[in-house]
Write a structure and sequence with these properties.
With 102 residues, this protein is an alpha+beta fold. The chain has 3 helices and 3 strands. The chain has one domain: ANL, C-terminal domain (GMP Synthetase, Chain A, domain 3). Helix content is 33%, strand content 21%. Helix 1 packs across helix 2.
């Protein structure tokens, strides 16, 4: 299994590519280790109005052109939490992901 690598060479960033290709209003991407130590990619989207199957298909197609990845999860939320300066609050997204993973 390979993991997604977030490096400056990956341009555009996965978030930007998913926003352009998947048709969502906002997105947050991060990695999280599962209990067995496998790193998984989490994609949290806001503003999707279609079915979950269609969203998963669009995200899969968007990521397939950006490199290799192992397991990934797609979750929908009403809004991506951001700071007053617009940065994504990934720690809050991780909490959401932990709740969804149970």
């Amino acid at each position: 299994m390979t993991t997604w690598r977030f490096t400056p060479r990956n341009s555009p960033r996965p978030e930007e590519h998913i926003l352009r290709s998947a048709g969502v209003a906002d997105v947050g991407v991060f990695t999280m280790q599962e209990p067995l130590g496998v790193e998984e990619l989490w994609i949290v989207v806001a503003g999707w109005r279609g079915s979950e199957a269609e969203l998963l298909d669009r995200v899969t197609r968007a990521l397939s052109t950006r490199g290799t990845f192992g397991r990934f999860h797609v979750a929908q939320v009403p809004a991506i939490p951001r700071t007053s300066t617009g940065k994504i609050q990934r720690h809050l997204l991780r909490r959401t992901a932990e709740r969804l993973a149970r």
